[in-house]
Amino acid sequence: MHEQVGDLRVDENGLALRGVLVRHLVMPGLLEDTGEIARWLASELSPDTYLNVMDQYYPAWKAKTDAKFSSINREIRGSEFEQALAYAREAGLWRLDRRWRRVQPRFEFVEILPAS
Question: What digits encode the pLDDT tens for the residues 64-90?
Fold first, then answer.
């Protein structure tokens, strides 16, 4: 996609006109993955890649109930989010969007069983 449309271009009001915008969901305890992704974006795509770093992860369904997913049975910490941004900057990315932090409402998922 980047080869087709290039880096994100916006107008004077910040409205996206054309280009790639990457959204990355930071996962608890997986900051090294975030660092690798940031380095790949900066080196293989462009250091001008627009990156929306998201902190909205919350455990649901099996992540919340299955012991094999216990490592992701928590929200990310503020320090993890800040470290994710630091990794992106260290990789050479500079177009980092943090405007939409924690705007999603929190929902509890309930399993609905068919009537018997």
Answer: 999 999 999 999 999 999 999 999 999
